[in-house]
Design goal:
Layout (H helix, E strand, L loop, with lengths): L1 H9 L14 H16 L8 H14 L1 H18 L5 H15 L3 H12 L6 H18 L3 H13 L8 H9 L6 E9 L1 H9 L3 E4 L4 H6 L11 E9 L8 E4 L2
Helix pairs in contact: 1-7, 1-8, 2-3, 2-5, 3-4, 4-5, 4-6, 6-7
Length: 249
């Protein structure tokens, strides 16, 4: 069920109501805090907070991880929003909830995913949980295509008789939130390569063979791109780079 839900939520052609949420609960908190500051600085009028507040109410009500980490504080905030509240009180509540939730949010989502994955009576709760987890990965900075690739690689490429806890745990460990360094290769013309090298960039003549060479097979400009422009980038996944990426060991 987990794999099917993740794949469904990340597929662009999926019916809109089943797609991944654009913001997770933590991202909604930050959005609200920034908007409160804009209202206080009179850059926007207070009424623009109304839809953000409604989205936050929904998110707090549906998100089991946030409820697990800050149930009392969320209840207090919801009660406050039913009054003629001050913006300072609103922001203070949000900062307290952020302090309780943000650091432990991903780990709590993962713990709940493992606890509920084999409980068929909680399918609807599990769908919501998967939605918040998928959204959180995107808001951390993982590329949608990379998440889809790992879902396919872990659950669909090989025949799995039964997806158990170990398979799900293996999937979750692939998203540790740590940047990795990748080497990016981009094909360029000889003239551009010489120009870049003159500016002390790493550009060199393209040699035969290798993983990068194989990526050019379908490129109609292969014969013109005789040089390679190379640089390193720190990012969460290789899909976060432009060009062809090689992990740096």
């Amino acid at each position: 069920m987990f794999a099917q839900l993740m794949s469904e939520m990340l597929t662009p052609t999926t019916f809109e109501s089943f797609r991944v949420y654009s913001l997770d609960t933590v991202a909604r908190i930050y959005e609200a805090i920034e908007l409160i500051a804009d209202v206080q600085d009179q850059r926007v009028v207070r009424v623009v907070l109304d839809p953000v507040i409604e989205e936050m109410r929904w998110s707090f009500a549906k998100d089991p991880a946030a409820q697990s980490l800050a149930a009392d504080e969320i209840e207090s905030l919801v009660a406050l929003l039913g009054t003629s509240f001050s913006l300072d009180d609103f922001a203070s509540h949000l900062w307290l909830i952020e302090k309780l939730v943000a650091e432990k949010y991903k780990g709590t989502l993962e713990r709940l995913l493992l606890e509920l994955f084999d409980q068929p009576k909680k399918r609807m709760d599990y769908r919501k949980l998967v939605g918040f987890y998928c959204s959180h990965l995107l808001n951390l900075g993982y590329e949608r295509n990379h998440i889809r690739y790992v879902v396919e690689e872990t659950f669909f490429e090989k025949t799995v008789v039964r997806m158990g806890r170990k398979t799900l745990e293996k999937f979750l460990t692939k998203f540790d939130g740590k940047n990795r360094r990748y080497t990016v290769h981009v094909g360029v013309t000889r003239d551009l390569g010489n120009y870049l090298r003159g500016l002390d960039y790493n550009a060199f003549h393209r040699g035969g063979g290798g993983a990068y060479e194989a990526t050019l097979d379908q490129n109609p400009n292969k014969n013109v791109l005789t040089w390679v422009f190379e640089w390193s980038v720190d990012t969460l996944d290789p899909h976060g780079c432009d060009g062809f990426c090689l992990p740096v060991s």
